[in-house]
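User: Can you predict the 3D structure of SGNH hydrolase-type esterase domain-containing protein? Sequence below.
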Amino acid sequence: MQLGMDPSKVTVWWKGIQGMTWSQLLPQLHQMKVTWPNPDILVIHLGGNDLSTESPTNLLASVKKDMTSIRSIFPHCLLVWSNILPRRVWRHSPDSHEVDLVRTTVNRRIHNIVSELGGTSVNHDNIRCGTNTGLYRANGIHLSPKGIDVFNLNLQDFLEKWDLENSKNSPDV
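Assistant: Sure. Here are the predicted structure tokens for SGNH hydrolase-type esterase domain-containing protein:
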């Protein structure tokens, strides 16, 4: 749950909602701001459920508007985009290859949006959806326990690097 981080230095707070869509993000963050007002980092892993139901243009417009709002809500927070993962099956679309091409473009554009706001991204390049990887459940949509481990290790690796950089740049007390 703490991704191997020292709990005296880092608190990882998970707010995962299966089936969540982009339009639910800002209301969730406004609710969380009451009890969690000043996070150092906000990792956003969202959008996969929107890819086959929203046009990429509309999704990216919402992302740009909402990420700018998030920057205002949490001005001292590092925004981190966690790439939308590939899937073997995309609900609401018969053409998984086409949706995957859209996913790649959307990830790249969101990475640029977040970078312009001073944030960064976690790519998850080691998560692939081939049938023999063992990283996905049989439904081809959700990660298997092994896939969740790889995903979490990617986040842990990012946080460890961030923590190391942060401790280098902070003055000795």
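The CA atoms of residues 119 and 152 lie 20 Å apart. The first strand starts at residue 41 and ends at 44.
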